[in-house]
Amino acid sequence: MGTKIRFTRPDGKEAEGYLAKPGRANAPGVVVIQEWWGLQDQIRGICDRYAAAGYEALAPDLYAGTVVPYHDSAAAGKEMNSLNFIDATEQTVRGAAQYLARTGAKVGLTGFCMGGAVTIIGSVRIPELAAGVCYYGIPPEAAAKPADINIPLQCHFANNDGWCTPEAVNGFEAALNAADKSFELYRYDADHGFVNEQRPDAHNRACAELAWERTLAFWAQHL
Q: Whole-prediction pTM value?
């Protein structure tokens, strides 16, 4: 089990997050970014799972304590749309990456849904990162162009997704290929949010476990 911590953003302001630590020193780090629901227990569970796998994992709280119930999509959309994505990425998420890099360890960034989009933005705007893993999230090109991505990237998308549609994923993949970026991209016959076991309407255990195995192999290669 992890613990709630405070850390400093590059601008000197403080932020909060959930930190899970492995049983070894100087472990590589993974910043974990929430879905649009906020810092739910499921995201904390991802951090705990990373710690069990040997990584120090920190999930910054981008909603400053607000957590939206899974049934309330309208409230989740309101919270997400009120978020300053660039500030959240360049300050709060980067601060989390700097916290994990304090020992000199390599740091990766991953996120789900909204957090997947933040992962792409971070792959352009956070210099401390060594690699990124995006789950079903693509930001507008005004926030991050595929051609500007600076780190190796692994992406996981659902074929039954009304937000990151297959057409949007195809366009994103084409842009990465055109820019000759280092990436892996996987598609799953599942719904958006398929990793989240707290949402039985979306969760697909087989796909989630396959994505987890691929993610750990990717981190082992780059962190």
A: 0.98
Would you give the end-to-end CA distance of the chain in angstroms? 23
Sign of CA dihedral 142, 144, 148, 154: negative
Task: Give, in degrees to the nearest 5, the angle at Cα 74 between 68 and 76.
Answer: 35
Cβ atoms of 47 and 18 within 8 Å: the answer is yes
For the segment 180-208, what is each residue's pLDDT rounded down to a tens digit? Answer: 999 999 999 999 999 999 999 999 999 99
User: 181 in the Ramachandran plot: left (φ > 0), alpha (ψ -120 to 50) or beta?
Assistant: beta
Instruction: State which H helix or E strand residue 29 sits in.
Output: strand 29-33
Q: What single-letter amino acid sits at 223?
A: L
Q: Which domains does the chain have, with CATH numbers?
A: 3-222 (3.40.50.1820)
- Contact (Cβ atoms closer than 8 angstroms) between residue 134 and residue 156: yes
The encoded tokens of residue 161 equal 């997704």
For 206, the 3-state DSSP assignment is: helix
